[in-house]
Amino acid sequence: VGELVAAYRFLRRLEHRLQYVEDAQTHTLPRDAADQALVAAAMGFADYGALAAELDDHRAAVSRHFDAVFAQRGRGEHELSALWSGAADDQATCERLRALGYREAQAVARRLAAVRGAARYQQMPANIRSRFDPLIPRVIDEAARRPNPDETLARTLDLLEAISRRGAYLALLQQYPQALARVCELAGASSWAAGYLTRHPVLLDELLDPRLIEAAHDWPALRAELSATLDAIEPDMER
User: Fold this and answer.
1) Domain 1-71, architecture per CATH
2) Hey, where are the domains in the chain?
3) DSSP string, 134-199
4) For the chain (length 239 residues), average pLDDT per consecutive 10?
5) Rounded CA gap, 33 and 35, in Å?
6) Is 1 exposed, middle or buried (0-12, 13-18, 19+ CB in 10 A)?
7) Buried-most residue among 1, 162, 175, 207 (CB within 10 A)?
8) End-to-end alpha carbon distance in the chain
């Protein structure tokens, strides 16, 4: 876990420096030598080569951990995996969803099939899909535990589709069930909050910070931290 936390912090710092240099939301390393030198200096490295070497080390560490996690996938497949792998609005699927507590089972089944058939999913790189697929059965299960399962699932699916290209977020949700529960809880509690997260996934950095995930829930403190983040992002926003 220590290596993942270190990699997460490094990548988050690097992402912020890249966005500062480009003055836009980006996750692409610069090709211009001057920009490379600027990013390296901002990260505290003597040159870009040293930064690139450190980045490669973190990537290798993350890959080792991910490989270890997903190597167990076949043995640890979720009991609801069939609802996703064979997503369709057939009778058996709808009956299973109703048994879980979903009110509009056919609409839920169709939404799952739509996500699976969408171009965004079909065009996912294999490594991203290997992280996305195991999440959906867990989301179905977690949303079913909420008072409003249909709405919770729909909002959480919107969010997952929005971050589907960001493998680090998907991996954290996969590795930490309590993080996924936190996201589903927020999605179920507030349509506005879920929509805002979907439009501004940078706030997931706060929700998915490994230090917060492993700590006991302190919702007042979390709300205060998110409010501070929102103020930093949109200081003139009316709330």
Assistant:
1) Up-down Bundle (1.20)
2) 1-71, 80-239
3) HHHHHHHHHHHTSSSHHHHHHHHHHHHHHTTT-HHHHHHHHH-HHHHHHHHHHHHH-HHHHHHHHH
4) 79 83 67 89 92 87 66 59 76 90 93 92 90 93 94 95 85 83 89 85 69 52 57 46
5) 5
6) exposed
7) 207
8) 36
- Distance separating alpha carbons of residues 97 and 144, to the nearest angstrom: 9
Nearest to 115 by CA among 78, 80, 84: 84
Residue 96 in tokens = 């299973």
Residue closest to 14 by CA, chosen among 4, 2, 26 = 26
Give pLDDT, residue 144. Answer: 94
Burial of 71 (0-12, 13-18, 19+ CB in 10 A): exposed
**Is the entire prediction scored with pTM above 0.85?**
no
